[in-house]
Amino acid sequence: MNNDDRARGLARLRALMAMTTVNGCTEEEELAAARMVAKAVEQLDGNPVAAPATDPSWAARERDNPQYQLLLEKNTLEGMLKTTLQELALAHINTVSPAKRNLRGQPVEWVRTTELMLPYFNMMLGSAGASRLARGIVEGMVEELILDGLLPDALAMPRE
User: Rounded to whole angstroms, what are the CA distances from 111 to 14, 158, 160?
Assistant: First the structure.
């Protein structure tokens, strides 16, 4: 970093500190801004750049291990599938289930989320969801999402 860049950066930081004071921030906010400015000044002052750390030998072995790569890929795919199912489930819940404030005084029936979601997912999957294995995977993931607290376990549906 040359002197012009450093001077420009310091002038900008001084202006930032002046703006926080002028805008009437609280003492805590001013202190937080001062800490951020101090960190930035420290970086501007030219701390020596640390050499990039090399991976330890175990990390290189782990990265090059095909079994580890397969497991990592499987976990990533499962995570993506779980997230996709959660988003689809929440979108369906928001479409099907009325807001609680609209149910005041009405008789309701509590429906398990899995009972509501599984037919929907089977319809969405089409022929891919026709196998028992696919339905079992989806049901297991919906149960996991419920146990993790990412989906409600039951929904209040108005009785007709």
Answer: 60, 10, 14
| Whole-angstrom distance, CA of residue 102 vs CA of residue 158 | 10
For 24-73, the pLDDT digits (tens) are 666 676 677 777 777 776 776 665 545 556 667 877 788 788 898 888 88
Contact assessment for residue 103 and residue 94, using Cβ atoms and an 8 Å cutoff: no
Local structure of 135: helix, strand or coil: helix
DSSP assignment of 32-83 equals HHHHHHHHHHHHHTTPPPPPPPPPPHHHHHHHH-HHHHHHHHHHHHHHHHHH
SS3 4: helix
Q: What phi and psi values does residue 109 have, to the nearest 5 degrees?
A: -125, 130
CA separation, residue 57 to residues 44, 103, 151 (Å) = 34, 61, 41
For residues 147 and 141, the answer to whether their CB atoms sit within 8 Å is: no
pTM for the predicted model, two decimal places: 0.54
Over the stretch 31-45, which tens digit does the pLDDT of each residue have?
A: 777 777 777 767 766
Q: How far apart are CA 143 and CA 131, in angstroms?
A: 18
